[in-house]
Amino acid sequence: MDTIIPTSDMPIVLWSLCTATIGTAILVPQLFRAAKQAKNALDGTLERMTVVELFQTFFIKLVLEVFGGVGAIWGFSEVLTLRHPGNENLWRIIALPFGVVFLIRLVRGLVIEPSGIEDKSFFALLKTFGARLILEVFGGGGAIWGYSEICKFRNPETVFYWRPCAAVFGLVFLVRFCVQIADFLRTAKVLETAPSALDHVERFSAMIVLEVFGAGGAIWGFSEACTLRNPENATFWRIQAQIIAVIFCVRFFIHIVKAMSSSSSTVEKSQVQITEASPLIV
Asked: Where are the transmembrane segments (predicted)?
């Protein structure tokens, strides 16, 4: 009996393995770290990242920033009606290089410049908020747009509703983006006071859109931008995107539990900045 996998099925098999690897790399260290932090009180110093945590951070950033950067451009261009079947190849050429840029940024941040020291220069402003504009503003709208299609909420009959809905989310994150720039320029040090309940609401509201919906939308948009997804295998990619979204949803609730149980919010916040995926948590 011939057991050789057909060439046409290889992308599906490889991506299934990638999904399993990414899920394991993200959730297992996260659960162990949460258990460790629950057992041992924070001593007021930053823990040095272990090799396992480094791999965890890499895979989180790979989904949210590399795949998400491409998916943000790809999805939000459709939200704004800039992309249509007649110019998809053009937008593919525009979106895919952002994946390369964010991959270089990821490797540089983890290997070349792993320091957690904050840079308040003008170049840092451009570098940081250029990434935020794509990952948070475009990504916020693109996350709603992509995830609504993954869940089969969006279709040709309901697109008139989901387009303004996604655009509103993009606008909300644009306002938040402008506020963050003002905060960046106004202060030269990390805020040392404990975050308020409103801060937690803002942080986790952004996190569920950008990281839970955004993770699923990143896989969905990236697969289409790379021409891996088509009408024939859409069900497979829908399942893969939902699996990634569930993984990040579990991670989301772990963060909520850690935030509620931690009494040393300043240290926790600094650890999130250094070890977590997207630049949204500030």
From this structure: 12-32, 58-77, 89-108, 129-148, 160-179, 204-223, 235-254
For 281: left if phi > 0, alpha if psi spans -120 to 50, otherwise beta; the answer is beta
Quick one: angle between helices 234-261 and 139-150, nearest 10? 120
What is the C-alpha to C-alpha distance for residues 206 and 224, in angstroms, rounded to an integer?
Answer: 25
On the CB side of 242, CA atoms within 13 Å amount to: 11
pTM of the model: 0.70
Structure tokens given for 114: 């792993």
Structure tokens at 198: 């409103």
Write the CB contacts of 145 (distance below 8 Å, at least 6 apart in sequence): 75, 76, 78, 79, 154, 162, 163, 166, 217
| Within-domain flag for 127 | yes
How far is it, in rounded angstroms, from Cα 257 to Cα 270? Answer: 17
Q: Could you give the CA distance from residue 105 to residue 128 in angstroms, rounded to a whole number?
A: 11
Sign of CA dihedral 165, 282, 181, 109: negative
What's at 119, amino acid-wise?
D
Distances (CA, A) of 59 to 53, 107, 154, 216, 280: 10, 11, 29, 14, 17
Specify the number of domains making up the chain.
Answer: 1
User: Which whole-number Å values give the CA distances from 197 to 64, 194, 202, in the listed order?
Assistant: 26, 10, 9
Tens-place pLDDT, residues 85-144: 899 999 999 999 988 888 888 887 776 655 554 555 666 677 778 888 888 899 999 999
- Give residue 242's domain range: 52-113+120-275
Asked if the structure places residue 282 within a domain, the reply is: no
